[in-house]
Design a protein that fits this description.
single chain, 484 residues, alpha+beta, Immunoglobulin-like, 3 domains, 4-stranded antiparallel β-sheet, 8 helices
Amino acid sequence: MQMSVDLRRGPARLLSLLIIAIILSGLAMTVATPRQVSAATAPTIGGVTACVAGGVATLTVTGTGLLPNAALLVNLVGATNVAVNPDGTILTATIPALSILPGVNAIVLTNPGQLVPLAVSLTIGSACPSASPSACPSASPSASPSASPSTNPAPNPSTPGGNEGTPPTLTDLFLVGTGQVPPMTNGRVTFLATIQDNAALGGVEASMNANGPWQRVVDISGNIGGPFRIAGGFDTTNPTFGGSTTPGNKTVYLRAFDAQSNVSPTQTLLVNYPSQLKTFSDVTGDPETVNAIYQLAARGIIKGYEDGTFGPNDPTVRAQMAALISRSIGWGNEDHNNTFPDRGPVDDELWRQVGNLDFYGVARGYSDSATCASANTTAPCYLPLDEVTQVQTISFITRAMVRIGYWTPQGDDPSLYPNVPASSGHRVDLATYVHYLGAVPGTSATSDWTSYDQPASRAFFALAEWQAVKWREDSANWGIIPRP
């Protein structure tokens, strides 16, 4: 049975959305680099120049780590004649001069597996020297932002200072996950937020007390000067900053700060320490599987059955899948009015989570009448009791991580799982999952995946989901992130 929704979200569409977001936000910055995890060192950008000859603009990008197969988009138009010098410090490309807008221009540079959006003010009045395109008028370079969490407490500025500029703002604060924080998780909670800053940004600091002391949890350097999305985390059990492991509800206080000691108004997140860990009578055997199940249970992501079992060998059905992903991402308390006609015996909580995944476009269901009619319902339908295959599991997890803004879709790699056909609609999701997390649990990424189209057991789903949760909680992945 073929889903009507294509689980892939192409890189070109994501790049377009990023560019549009940059233009609409009116960023007055030179460079903004999303923090990515990659086997290669992320490129740094020093500046972009432009000059015109015969109606064609030649762009010169200076930096480090530029790869020969990098690509360039300028205001949604793809550049041609892209060339990179051998040491990866200069990239040149051409584009119609009319593609460059007056004032700030949105540019996206992509190395394989890496993405760097820029908003650059370009002056194109001068002609390009015929023999030396790189001699165009120079653009002002800017430092690339970087993130490095610190366990040292930040200064505790109580009033704006320094240049007396506008304090930063911390908005759209979003707790990733359920907010259930048992001791086995080391007390760590992860969050997403949007920051607007008009000076060189310092980062984000957190405390379990409204008046501090404050711990610097994310550091960002560079003069960004516009809204951007940031990922971070905080150890809520650290007594130095007011934390403890006492069961019950707790409040986390967060605020942004900049290099001029300006601080944002404080924002809060609510977390809970359960009095005891969840256990299941039938979870035994492989230590990696047992750990994944209990890690997710400790976070309130999986709950098991009413009889105290988990059913690790039971197939995962689409309603259960929706709940697991929705809780994991942090959408679990939302309600988006599920209107699918085929609820059947699904309980209220699971059905609400189906509506959440539909709302966010992670799993929209089936729109063809024949598929829905075969289940005695009308289109569009969700078929909540249908089993989820192993490869669908990877696609749903990947789409959620892309939708929330942590990951950027990767291009298909034919060497990965060569027996999974392109017609399945899952190859881009597979490439993206492997890029960030490595091989699918129990497989070798460069070999055939013989069970890709078989039902995903609840244990398999837990293993695959735990990899994504663990990645988000790793401080190496905090900092500026892309946001679709």
